[in-house]
Q: What sequence folds into this?
Protein backbone atom coordinates (compact mmCIF):
# COMPACT_ATOMS: atom_id res chain seq x y z
CA UNK A 1 0.00 0.00 0.00
CA UNK A 2 1.12 3.53 -0.49
CA UNK A 3 3.41 5.31 -2.88
CA UNK A 4 6.23 2.81 -3.04
CA UNK A 5 7.21 3.24 -6.69
CA UNK A 6 10.45 4.53 -8.05
CA UNK A 7 8.79 7.51 -9.69
CA UNK A 8 5.64 9.32 -8.69
CA UNK A 9 2.52 7.84 -10.30
CA UNK A 10 0.75 10.15 -12.64
CA UNK A 11 -2.29 10.11 -10.36
CA UNK A 12 -0.33 10.22 -7.15
CA UNK A 13 -2.22 7.07 -6.08
CA UNK A 14 0.25 5.53 -3.65
CA UNK A 15 -2.16 4.60 -0.86
CA UNK A 16 -4.13 1.46 -0.19
CA UNK A 17 -5.65 1.76 -3.66
CA UNK A 18 -2.24 1.64 -5.40
CA UNK A 19 -1.41 -1.31 -7.60
CA UNK A 20 1.90 -1.78 -5.74
CA UNK A 21 1.80 -3.98 -2.69
CA UNK A 22 5.22 -2.91 -1.35
CA UNK A 23 5.30 -1.64 2.21
CA UNK A 24 7.88 0.03 4.44
CA UNK A 25 8.57 -1.40 7.84
CA UNK A 26 9.53 0.62 10.86
CA UNK A 27 8.18 3.56 12.82
CA UNK A 28 7.33 7.12 11.90
CA UNK A 29 6.50 10.28 13.67
CA UNK A 30 5.72 13.86 12.76
CA UNK A 31 8.72 16.14 13.08
CA UNK A 32 8.34 19.26 15.18
CA UNK A 33 4.58 18.81 15.28
CA UNK A 34 4.35 19.32 11.53
CA UNK A 35 2.27 16.96 9.46
CA UNK A 36 4.21 18.02 6.36
CA UNK A 37 7.16 15.73 7.00
CA UNK A 38 7.33 12.09 8.03
CA UNK A 39 10.43 10.07 8.75
CA UNK A 40 10.33 6.32 8.02
CA UNK A 41 13.06 3.77 8.79
CA UNK A 42 13.54 1.47 5.80
CA UNK A 43 14.45 -2.15 6.52
CA UNK A 44 14.62 -3.45 2.97
CA UNK A 45 16.12 -2.22 -0.24
CA UNK A 46 12.77 -1.11 -1.57
CA UNK A 47 12.87 2.42 -2.88
CA UNK A 48 10.22 5.08 -2.54
CA UNK A 49 9.66 7.91 -4.89
CA UNK A 50 12.11 10.73 -4.39
CA UNK A 51 11.49 14.28 -5.33
CA UNK A 52 11.13 17.70 -3.76
CA UNK A 53 8.97 20.72 -4.11
CA UNK A 54 10.05 24.27 -4.13
CA UNK A 55 8.23 24.71 -0.85
CA UNK A 56 10.29 21.87 0.66
CA UNK A 57 7.25 19.83 1.62
CA UNK A 58 8.77 16.33 1.47
CA UNK A 59 9.02 13.32 3.72
CA UNK A 60 12.52 12.07 4.43
CA UNK A 61 13.16 8.33 4.39
CA UNK A 62 16.42 7.05 5.87
CA UNK A 63 18.13 4.20 4.06
CA UNK A 64 19.79 1.26 5.85
CA UNK A 65 23.39 2.04 6.82
CA UNK A 66 25.65 -0.83 5.85
CA UNK A 67 28.92 0.95 6.55
CA UNK A 68 30.59 4.34 6.84
CA UNK A 69 33.33 4.01 4.25
CA UNK A 70 33.93 6.63 1.62
CA UNK A 71 31.82 6.43 -1.46
CA UNK A 72 29.14 4.32 0.18
CA UNK A 73 26.50 6.98 0.04
CA UNK A 74 25.21 5.75 3.38
CA UNK A 75 24.02 9.19 4.48
CA UNK A 76 21.81 9.77 1.47
CA UNK A 77 18.11 10.23 2.20
CA UNK A 78 15.21 9.40 -0.06
CA UNK A 79 12.19 11.68 -0.03
CA UNK A 80 8.48 11.34 -0.80
CA UNK A 81 6.81 14.28 -2.45
CA UNK A 82 3.57 14.93 -0.57
CA UNK A 83 2.58 17.54 -3.13
CA UNK A 84 2.65 15.11 -6.07
CA UNK A 85 -0.44 15.58 -8.27
CA UNK A 86 -3.27 13.06 -7.94
CA UNK A 87 -5.45 12.88 -11.01
CA UNK A 88 -7.87 15.80 -11.29
CA UNK A 89 -7.71 16.65 -7.58
CA UNK A 90 -6.59 20.19 -6.76
CA UNK A 91 -3.25 20.47 -4.85
CA UNK A 92 -4.73 20.72 -1.33
CA UNK A 93 -6.79 17.56 -1.87
CA UNK A 94 -3.87 15.78 -3.55
CA UNK A 95 -1.73 16.57 -0.51
CA UNK A 96 -4.38 15.18 1.87
CA UNK A 97 -4.54 12.03 -0.17
CA UNK A 98 -0.75 11.62 -0.30
CA UNK A 99 -0.53 12.17 3.45
CA UNK A 100 -3.22 9.56 3.98
CA UNK A 101 -1.32 7.14 1.77
CA UNK A 102 1.89 7.57 3.76
CA UNK A 103 0.09 7.25 7.09
CA UNK A 104 -1.68 4.10 5.90
CA UNK A 105 1.59 2.64 4.65
CA UNK A 106 3.10 3.05 8.09
CA UNK A 107 0.21 1.56 9.99
CA UNK A 108 -1.46 4.75 11.25
CA UNK A 109 -4.88 3.77 9.97
CA UNK A 110 -6.93 6.14 12.13
CA UNK A 111 -4.86 9.14 11.06
CA UNK A 112 -4.95 8.01 7.42
CA UNK A 113 -8.74 7.69 7.68
CA UNK A 114 -8.96 11.29 8.88
CA UNK A 115 -6.92 12.52 5.90
CA UNK A 116 -9.09 10.63 3.41
CA UNK A 117 -12.25 11.94 5.08
CA UNK A 118 -10.97 15.52 4.77
CA UNK A 119 -10.16 14.90 1.11
CA UNK A 120 -13.68 13.51 0.50
CA UNK A 121 -15.28 16.50 2.22
CA UNK A 122 -13.08 18.87 0.23
CA UNK A 123 -14.05 17.14 -2.99
CA UNK A 124 -17.73 17.67 -2.14
CA UNK A 125 -17.21 21.32 -1.16
CA UNK A 126 -15.32 22.20 -4.36
CA UNK A 127 -17.96 20.63 -6.61
CA UNK A 128 -15.46 18.58 -8.63
CA UNK A 129 -16.61 16.12 -11.26
CA UNK A 130 -14.06 13.29 -11.21
CA UNK A 131 -15.78 10.03 -10.23
CA UNK A 132 -12.58 8.05 -10.59
CA UNK A 133 -10.72 10.14 -8.00
CA UNK A 134 -13.65 10.09 -5.56
CA UNK A 135 -13.92 6.32 -6.03
CA UNK A 136 -10.26 5.94 -5.00
CA UNK A 137 -10.75 8.12 -1.91
CA UNK A 138 -13.72 6.06 -0.75
CA UNK A 139 -11.86 2.82 -1.48
CA UNK A 140 -8.80 4.02 0.48
CA UNK A 141 -10.93 5.06 3.44
CA UNK A 142 -12.70 1.68 3.27
CA UNK A 143 -9.27 0.04 3.60
CA UNK A 144 -8.70 2.02 6.81
CA UNK A 145 -12.06 0.93 8.19
CA UNK A 146 -11.26 -2.67 7.34
CA UNK A 147 -7.88 -2.48 9.11
CA UNK A 148 -9.54 -1.02 12.21
CA UNK A 149 -12.22 -3.77 12.19
CA UNK A 150 -15.08 -1.44 11.23
CA UNK A 151 -16.56 -3.75 8.61
CA UNK A 152 -19.91 -1.98 8.38
CA UNK A 153 -18.43 1.40 7.39
CA UNK A 154 -16.01 -0.40 5.08
CA UNK A 155 -18.96 -1.94 3.22
CA UNK A 156 -20.66 1.46 2.99
CA UNK A 157 -17.59 3.17 1.48
CA UNK A 158 -16.93 0.29 -0.92
CA UNK A 159 -20.53 0.46 -2.12
CA UNK A 160 -20.16 4.20 -2.73
CA UNK A 161 -16.94 3.59 -4.65
CA UNK A 162 -18.63 0.94 -6.80
CA UNK A 163 -21.52 3.29 -7.54
CA UNK A 164 -18.97 5.71 -8.94
CA UNK A 165 -16.84 3.10 -10.74
CA UNK A 166 -18.73 -0.20 -11.21
CA UNK A 167 -16.63 -3.37 -11.18
CA UNK A 168 -13.65 -1.63 -9.59
CA UNK A 169 -11.48 -4.47 -8.31
CA UNK A 170 -10.26 -3.27 -4.90
CA UNK A 171 -13.59 -1.99 -3.54
CA UNK A 172 -15.13 -5.34 -4.50
CA UNK A 173 -12.37 -7.30 -2.81
CA UNK A 174 -12.49 -5.18 0.36
CA UNK A 175 -16.24 -5.35 0.57
CA UNK A 176 -16.07 -9.15 0.19
CA UNK A 177 -13.60 -9.32 3.07
CA UNK A 178 -15.85 -7.12 5.19
CA UNK A 179 -18.91 -9.25 4.44
CA UNK A 180 -16.94 -12.35 5.34
CA UNK A 181 -15.82 -10.86 8.65
CA UNK A 182 -19.49 -10.18 9.46
CA UNK A 183 -20.32 -13.81 8.48
CA UNK A 184 -22.53 -12.57 5.65
CA UNK A 185 -21.15 -15.38 3.51
CA UNK A 186 -23.58 -15.27 0.62
CA UNK A 187 -22.80 -11.62 -0.21
CA UNK A 188 -19.09 -12.25 0.32
CA UNK A 189 -19.24 -15.18 -2.10
CA UNK A 190 -20.92 -13.03 -4.77
CA UNK A 191 -18.27 -10.27 -4.46
CA UNK A 192 -15.37 -12.74 -4.57
CA UNK A 193 -16.82 -14.41 -7.67
CA UNK A 194 -17.22 -10.98 -9.29
CA UNK A 195 -13.56 -10.20 -8.48
CA UNK A 196 -12.52 -13.41 -10.26
CA UNK A 197 -14.50 -12.37 -13.33
CA UNK A 198 -12.44 -9.19 -13.40
CA UNK A 199 -9.09 -10.85 -12.66
CA UNK A 200 -8.92 -14.62 -12.36
CA UNK A 201 -5.37 -14.44 -11.02
CA UNK A 202 -6.40 -13.03 -7.60
CA UNK A 203 -5.43 -16.01 -5.46
CA UNK A 204 -6.97 -14.55 -2.31
CA UNK A 205 -10.36 -14.57 -4.01
CA UNK A 206 -9.91 -18.21 -5.07
CA UNK A 207 -8.99 -19.24 -1.53
CA UNK A 208 -11.92 -17.31 -0.06
CA UNK A 209 -14.41 -18.82 -2.54
CA UNK A 210 -13.29 -22.34 -1.57
CA UNK A 211 -13.48 -21.55 2.12
CA UNK A 212 -16.91 -19.88 1.93
CA UNK A 213 -18.27 -22.68 -0.28
CA UNK A 214 -17.60 -25.17 2.52
CA UNK A 215 -19.24 -22.85 5.05
CA UNK A 216 -22.33 -22.36 2.87
CA UNK A 217 -22.71 -26.10 2.34
CA UNK A 218 -22.62 -26.59 6.12
CA UNK A 219 -25.06 -23.71 6.60
CA UNK A 220 -27.56 -24.26 3.76
CA UNK A 221 -26.97 -27.88 2.68
CA UNK A 222 -26.97 -29.05 -0.93
CA UNK A 223 -29.40 -26.29 -1.95
CA UNK A 224 -26.94 -23.52 -1.00
CA UNK A 225 -26.56 -22.22 -4.55
CA UNK A 226 -30.30 -21.51 -4.85
CA UNK A 227 -30.06 -19.19 -1.85
CA UNK A 228 -27.28 -17.00 -3.30
CA UNK A 229 -27.98 -13.52 -4.63
CA UNK A 230 -27.47 -13.12 -8.37
CA UNK A 231 -23.83 -12.86 -9.40
CA UNK A 232 -23.46 -9.90 -11.77
CA UNK A 233 -22.01 -10.50 -15.20
CA UNK A 234 -18.87 -8.41 -15.63
CA UNK A 235 -18.69 -6.77 -19.09
CA UNK A 236 -15.62 -7.44 -21.21
CA UNK A 237 -14.61 -3.79 -20.93
CA UNK A 238 -14.10 -4.24 -17.18
CA UNK A 239 -12.10 -7.46 -17.49
CA UNK A 240 -8.86 -5.56 -17.95
CA UNK A 241 -6.76 -7.71 -15.64
CA UNK A 242 -7.80 -11.13 -16.96
CA UNK A 243 -4.93 -13.34 -18.04
CA UNK A 244 -5.06 -14.71 -21.53
CA UNK A 245 -3.63 -18.07 -20.41
CA UNK A 246 -5.27 -21.44 -21.00
CA UNK A 247 -7.26 -22.59 -17.97
CA UNK A 248 -5.53 -24.94 -15.57
CA UNK A 249 -6.63 -28.49 -14.90
CA UNK A 250 -8.21 -27.34 -11.65
CA UNK A 251 -10.20 -24.65 -13.45
CA UNK A 252 -11.32 -27.10 -16.12
CA UNK A 253 -12.38 -29.58 -13.44
CA UNK A 254 -14.25 -26.87 -11.56
CA UNK A 255 -16.02 -25.85 -14.77
CA UNK A 256 -16.96 -29.46 -15.51
CA UNK A 257 -18.28 -29.93 -11.99
CA UNK A 258 -20.28 -26.72 -12.24
CA UNK A 259 -21.69 -27.78 -15.60
CA UNK A 260 -22.65 -31.15 -14.12
CA UNK A 261 -24.31 -29.47 -11.15
CA UNK A 262 -26.17 -27.09 -13.41
CA UNK A 263 -27.35 -29.96 -15.59
CA UNK A 264 -28.45 -31.91 -12.52
CA UNK A 265 -30.33 -28.89 -11.19
CA UNK A 266 -32.09 -28.37 -14.50
CA UNK A 267 -32.97 -32.07 -14.68
CA UNK A 268 -34.36 -31.91 -11.15
CA UNK A 269 -36.51 -28.90 -12.03
CA UNK A 270 -37.80 -30.66 -15.15
CA UNK A 271 -38.40 -33.88 -13.18
CA UNK A 272 -40.36 -32.05 -10.48
CA UNK A 273 -42.49 -30.31 -13.08
CA UNK A 274 -43.30 -33.60 -14.85
CA UNK A 275 -44.13 -35.31 -11.56
CA UNK A 276 -46.43 -32.47 -10.53
CA UNK A 277 -48.16 -32.61 -13.92
CA UNK A 278 -48.67 -36.35 -13.46
CA UNK A 279 -50.10 -35.86 -9.97
CA UNK A 280 -52.47 -33.19 -11.28
CA UNK A 281 -53.69 -35.52 -14.03
CA UNK A 282 -54.32 -38.28 -11.46
CA UNK A 283 -56.44 -35.91 -9.37
CA UNK A 284 -58.49 -35.14 -12.47
CA UNK A 285 -58.87 -38.82 -13.33
CA UNK A 286 -56.85 -38.45 -16.54
CA UNK A 287 -54.76 -41.57 -15.95
CA UNK A 288 -53.49 -42.02 -19.50
CA UNK A 289 -52.03 -38.51 -19.50
CA UNK A 290 -50.58 -39.04 -16.02
CA UNK A 291 -48.99 -42.30 -17.19
CA UNK A 292 -47.14 -40.42 -19.93
CA UNK A 293 -45.79 -37.85 -17.48
CA UNK A 294 -44.56 -40.53 -15.07
CA UNK A 295 -42.88 -42.38 -17.94
CA UNK A 296 -40.99 -39.18 -18.81
CA UNK A 297 -39.98 -38.87 -15.16
CA UNK A 298 -38.47 -42.36 -15.19
CA UNK A 299 -36.36 -41.46 -18.21
CA UNK A 300 -34.75 -38.74 -16.09
CA UNK A 301 -34.61 -40.71 -12.84
CA UNK A 302 -35.00 -44.46 -13.39
CA UNK A 303 -34.31 -45.19 -9.71
CA UNK A 304 -37.19 -43.13 -8.28
CA UNK A 305 -39.39 -45.57 -6.37
CA UNK A 306 -42.35 -43.19 -5.92
CA UNK A 307 -42.73 -42.79 -9.69
CA UNK A 308 -43.07 -46.55 -10.17
CA UNK A 309 -45.84 -46.76 -7.55
CA UNK A 310 -47.57 -43.72 -9.07
CA UNK A 311 -47.45 -45.20 -12.55
CA UNK A 312 -48.66 -48.54 -11.16
CA UNK A 313 -51.76 -46.73 -9.89
CA UNK A 314 -52.42 -45.42 -13.40
CA UNK A 315 -52.04 -48.92 -14.84
CA UNK A 316 -54.49 -50.25 -12.24
CA UNK A 317 -57.05 -47.59 -13.12
CA UNK A 318 -56.62 -48.48 -16.80
CA UNK A 319 -56.94 -52.21 -15.93
CA UNK A 320 -53.49 -52.94 -17.29
CA UNK A 321 -52.72 -55.29 -14.42
CA UNK A 322 -49.57 -56.91 -15.81
CA UNK A 323 -47.84 -53.54 -16.27
CA UNK A 324 -48.99 -52.46 -12.81
CA UNK A 325 -47.46 -55.58 -11.27
CA UNK A 326 -44.18 -55.00 -13.13
CA UNK A 327 -43.95 -51.43 -11.81
CA UNK A 328 -44.62 -52.60 -8.26
CA UNK A 329 -41.93 -55.26 -8.64
CA UNK A 330 -39.49 -52.54 -9.75
CA UNK A 331 -40.45 -50.36 -6.78
CA UNK A 332 -39.91 -53.23 -4.33
CA UNK A 333 -36.46 -53.87 -5.75
CA UNK A 334 -35.59 -50.28 -4.86
CA UNK A 335 -37.44 -50.25 -1.52
CA UNK A 336 -38.17 -53.81 -0.32
CA UNK A 337 -40.53 -52.62 2.45
CA UNK A 338 -42.57 -50.12 0.44
CA UNK A 339 -46.11 -50.54 1.76
CA UNK A 340 -47.75 -48.76 -1.17
CA UNK A 341 -45.98 -51.03 -3.67
CA UNK A 342 -47.18 -54.16 -1.81
CA UNK A 343 -50.77 -52.92 -1.74
CA UNK A 344 -50.88 -51.95 -5.42
CA UNK A 345 -49.22 -55.20 -6.44
CA UNK A 346 -51.92 -57.01 -4.46
CA UNK A 347 -54.56 -55.15 -6.47
CA UNK A 348 -52.76 -56.07 -9.70
CA UNK A 349 -52.65 -59.73 -8.65
CA UNK A 350 -56.34 -59.57 -7.82
CA UNK A 351 -57.05 -58.23 -11.30
CA UNK A 352 -54.95 -61.10 -12.71
CA UNK A 353 -57.00 -63.52 -10.52
CA UNK A 354 -53.84 -64.63 -8.71
CA UNK A 355 -55.59 -64.61 -5.36
CA UNK A 356 -52.85 -66.40 -3.47
CA UNK A 357 -50.23 -63.81 -4.44
CA UNK A 358 -52.75 -61.06 -3.73
CA UNK A 359 -53.37 -62.44 -0.25
CA UNK A 360 -49.65 -62.69 0.45
CA UNK A 361 -49.08 -59.02 -0.44
CA UNK A 362 -52.06 -57.86 1.62
CA UNK A 363 -50.78 -59.80 4.62
CA UNK A 364 -47.41 -58.04 4.20
CA UNK A 365 -49.18 -54.66 4.23
CA UNK A 366 -51.08 -55.55 7.41
CA UNK A 367 -47.95 -56.86 9.05
CA UNK A 368 -46.29 -53.48 8.48
CA UNK A 369 -49.38 -51.51 9.49
CA UNK A 370 -52.35 -53.39 11.00
CA UNK A 371 -54.47 -50.21 10.79
CA UNK A 372 -54.78 -50.20 6.99
CA UNK A 373 -58.52 -50.87 6.75
CA UNK A 374 -58.53 -51.08 2.97
CA UNK A 375 -56.02 -53.94 3.08
CA UNK A 376 -58.04 -55.74 5.76
CA UNK A 377 -61.25 -55.54 3.74
CA UNK A 378 -59.48 -56.63 0.57
CA UNK A 379 -57.95 -59.61 2.40
CA UNK A 380 -61.37 -60.78 3.56
CA UNK A 381 -62.73 -60.52 0.03
CA UNK A 382 -59.73 -62.22 -1.55
CA UNK A 383 -59.88 -65.06 0.98
CA UNK A 384 -63.45 -65.78 -0.12
CA UNK A 385 -62.41 -65.61 -3.77
CA UNK A 386 -59.50 -67.96 -3.11
CA UNK A 387 -61.76 -70.52 -1.42
CA UNK A 388 -64.20 -70.35 -4.31
CA UNK A 389 -61.36 -70.75 -6.77
CA UNK A 390 -59.95 -73.77 -4.97
CA UNK A 391 -63.44 -75.30 -4.63
CA UNK A 392 -64.11 -74.82 -8.34
CA UNK A 393 -60.75 -76.33 -9.23
CA UNK A 394 -61.44 -79.30 -6.96
CA UNK A 395 -64.83 -79.96 -8.56
CA UNK A 396 -63.44 -79.70 -12.05
CA UNK A 397 -60.58 -82.15 -11.33
CA UNK A 398 -61.60 -85.86 -11.54
CA UNK A 399 -60.85 -87.87 -8.42
CA UNK A 400 -58.70 -90.96 -8.62
CA UNK A 401 -59.90 -94.28 -7.15
CA UNK A 402 -57.33 -95.61 -4.69
CA UNK A 403 -57.62 -99.24 -3.59
CA UNK A 404 -57.46 -99.77 0.16
CA UNK A 405 -55.78 -102.87 1.54
CA UNK A 406 -55.74 -104.00 5.14
CA UNK A 407 -52.48 -104.37 7.02
CA UNK A 408 -51.93 -107.98 8.16
CA UNK A 409 -48.60 -107.63 9.98
CA UNK A 410 -49.62 -108.20 13.62
CA UNK A 411 -46.33 -106.86 14.99
CA UNK A 412 -46.98 -103.45 13.44
CA UNK A 413 -50.56 -103.21 14.68
CA UNK A 414 -51.48 -101.37 17.84
CA UNK A 415 -54.98 -101.20 19.20
CA UNK A 416 -55.87 -97.82 20.67
CA UNK A 417 -59.13 -97.61 22.55
CA UNK A 418 -61.26 -94.53 21.90
CA UNK A 419 -64.04 -93.38 24.15
CA UNK A 420 -66.50 -93.04 21.31
CA UNK A 421 -65.39 -96.31 19.70
CA UNK A 422 -65.62 -98.01 23.02
CA UNK A 423 -69.03 -96.53 23.36
CA UNK A 424 -69.90 -98.13 20.06
CA UNK A 425 -68.05 -101.21 21.12
CA UNK A 426 -65.39 -100.86 18.39
CA UNK A 427 -61.59 -100.58 18.34
CA UNK A 428 -59.48 -98.44 16.01
CA UNK A 429 -56.49 -100.13 14.38
CA UNK A 430 -53.75 -97.81 13.05
CA UNK A 431 -50.27 -98.48 11.73
CA UNK A 432 -47.81 -96.67 14.06
CA UNK A 433 -44.83 -97.37 11.79
CA UNK A 434 -45.79 -95.95 8.37
CA UNK A 435 -43.09 -96.21 5.75
CA UNK A 436 -44.65 -93.98 3.12
CA UNK A 437 -47.16 -91.17 2.64
CA UNK A 438 -49.93 -93.60 1.81
CA UNK A 439 -49.56 -95.62 5.03
CA UNK A 440 -49.33 -92.42 7.09
CA UNK A 441 -52.42 -91.02 5.41
CA UNK A 442 -54.41 -94.17 6.10
CA UNK A 443 -53.49 -94.09 9.80
CA UNK A 444 -54.13 -90.33 10.13
CA UNK A 445 -57.52 -90.58 8.39
CA UNK A 446 -58.55 -93.46 10.66
CA UNK A 447 -57.77 -91.38 13.76
CA UNK A 448 -59.36 -88.24 12.34
CA UNK A 449 -62.58 -89.92 11.21
CA UNK A 450 -63.09 -91.24 14.70
CA UNK A 451 -61.94 -87.90 16.22
CA UNK A 452 -59.38 -89.81 18.26
CA UNK A 453 -56.73 -87.19 19.06
CA UNK A 454 -54.94 -89.62 21.35
CA UNK A 455 -54.38 -92.02 18.46
CA UNK A 456 -53.13 -89.11 16.31
CA UNK A 457 -50.71 -88.14 19.08
CA UNK A 458 -49.35 -91.72 19.19
CA UNK A 459 -48.92 -91.65 15.42
CA UNK A 460 -47.03 -88.34 15.58
CA UNK A 461 -44.88 -89.59 18.46
CA UNK A 462 -43.68 -92.48 16.29
CA UNK A 463 -43.10 -90.28 13.22
CA UNK A 464 -39.82 -88.42 12.60
CA UNK A 465 -40.57 -84.64 12.43
CA UNK A 466 -38.57 -84.19 9.21
CA UNK A 467 -40.77 -86.81 7.48
CA UNK A 468 -44.06 -85.10 8.40
CA UNK A 469 -44.10 -82.55 5.48
CA UNK A 470 -43.40 -85.36 3.00
CA UNK A 471 -46.14 -87.60 4.41
CA UNK A 472 -48.70 -84.75 4.34
CA UNK A 473 -47.80 -83.26 0.95
CA UNK A 474 -50.59 -85.00 -0.99
CA UNK A 475 -53.44 -84.66 1.51
CA UNK A 476 -52.86 -81.44 3.41
CA UNK A 477 -56.00 -79.46 4.17
CA UNK A 478 -57.32 -77.14 6.89
CA UNK A 479 -59.11 -79.86 8.85
CA UNK A 480 -55.99 -82.03 8.91
CA UNK A 481 -53.85 -79.21 10.25
CA UNK A 482 -56.43 -78.36 12.89
CA UNK A 483 -56.70 -82.02 13.98
CA UNK A 484 -52.91 -82.32 14.27
CA UNK A 485 -52.76 -79.12 16.35
CA UNK A 486 -55.39 -80.49 18.77
CA UNK A 487 -53.54 -83.80 19.09
CA UNK A 488 -50.24 -82.04 19.82
CA UNK A 489 -51.83 -79.72 22.37
CA UNK A 490 -54.06 -82.27 24.13
CA UNK A 491 -51.72 -85.26 24.44
CA UNK A 492 -48.14 -84.84 23.15
CA UNK A 493 -47.24 -81.41 24.59
CA UNK A 494 -47.29 -82.61 28.18
CA UNK A 495 -45.28 -85.77 27.39
CA UNK A 496 -42.65 -84.39 24.97
CA UNK A 497 -42.74 -80.60 24.30
CA UNK A 498 -39.44 -80.78 22.39
CA UNK A 499 -41.01 -83.18 19.89
CA UNK A 500 -44.01 -80.86 19.53
CA UNK A 501 -41.66 -77.96 18.74
CA UNK A 502 -39.80 -80.05 16.14
CA UNK A 503 -43.06 -81.14 14.45
CA UNK A 504 -44.23 -77.52 14.23
CA UNK A 505 -40.83 -76.44 12.97
CA UNK A 506 -41.15 -78.85 10.01
CA UNK A 507 -44.88 -78.82 9.38
CA UNK A 508 -44.98 -75.30 7.89
CA UNK A 509 -42.55 -76.39 5.13
CA UNK A 510 -45.11 -78.78 3.61
CA UNK A 511 -46.38 -78.09 0.09
CA UNK A 512 -49.47 -75.85 -0.10
CA UNK A 513 -49.16 -75.03 3.60
CA UNK A 514 -49.57 -71.26 3.06
CA UNK A 515 -52.69 -71.80 0.97
CA UNK A 516 -54.26 -74.14 3.48
CA UNK A 517 -53.39 -71.78 6.33
CA UNK A 518 -55.44 -69.03 4.70
CA UNK A 519 -58.52 -71.26 4.56
CA UNK A 520 -58.62 -72.08 8.27
CA UNK A 521 -61.81 -71.22 10.09
CA UNK A 522 -61.89 -68.98 13.13
CA UNK A 523 -62.14 -71.90 15.61
CA UNK A 524 -59.29 -73.71 13.89
CA UNK A 525 -57.09 -70.62 14.19
CA UNK A 526 -58.02 -70.37 17.85
CA UNK A 527 -56.81 -73.95 18.46
CA UNK A 528 -53.52 -73.07 16.75
CA UNK A 529 -53.04 -69.93 18.85
CA UNK A 530 -53.81 -71.89 22.01
CA UNK A 531 -51.13 -74.48 21.17
CA UNK A 532 -48.44 -71.83 20.77
CA UNK A 533 -49.47 -70.14 24.00
CA UNK A 534 -49.09 -73.43 25.88
CA UNK A 535 -45.78 -74.20 24.15
CA UNK A 536 -44.31 -70.78 25.00
CA UNK A 537 -45.04 -71.42 28.68
CA UNK A 538 -42.86 -74.56 28.68
CA UNK A 539 -39.32 -74.39 30.07
CA UNK A 540 -36.99 -76.25 27.72
CA UNK A 541 -33.30 -76.46 26.98
CA UNK A 542 -34.06 -77.16 23.31
CA UNK A 543 -35.86 -73.93 22.50
CA UNK A 544 -36.59 -70.50 24.01
CA UNK A 545 -39.72 -68.46 24.30
CA UNK A 546 -38.38 -66.22 21.55
CA UNK A 547 -37.95 -69.28 19.29
CA UNK A 548 -41.59 -70.18 19.86
CA UNK A 549 -42.69 -66.64 19.04
CA UNK A 550 -40.71 -66.63 15.80
CA UNK A 551 -42.21 -70.00 14.86
CA UNK A 552 -45.73 -68.80 15.71
CA UNK A 553 -45.32 -65.95 13.23
CA UNK A 554 -45.25 -68.55 10.46
CA UNK A 555 -48.62 -69.93 11.56
CA UNK A 556 -50.65 -67.11 13.04
A:
Amino acid sequence: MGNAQKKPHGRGDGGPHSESNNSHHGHWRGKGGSSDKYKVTQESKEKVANGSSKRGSTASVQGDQSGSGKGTGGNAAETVNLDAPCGALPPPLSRLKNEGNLLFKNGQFADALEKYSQAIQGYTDTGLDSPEDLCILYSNRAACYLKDGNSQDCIQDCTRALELQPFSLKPLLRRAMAYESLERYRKAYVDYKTVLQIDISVQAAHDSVNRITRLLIEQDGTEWREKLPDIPLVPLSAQQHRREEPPSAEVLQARAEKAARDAERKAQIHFSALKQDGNDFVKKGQYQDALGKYTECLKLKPEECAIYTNRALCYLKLERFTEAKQDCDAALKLEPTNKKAFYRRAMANKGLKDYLACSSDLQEVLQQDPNVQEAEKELEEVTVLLRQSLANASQAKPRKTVPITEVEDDEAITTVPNSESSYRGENISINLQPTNAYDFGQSLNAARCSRNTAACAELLASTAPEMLPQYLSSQLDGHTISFIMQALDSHLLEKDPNLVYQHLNHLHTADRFSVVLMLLEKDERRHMTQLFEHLSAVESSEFTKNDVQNLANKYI
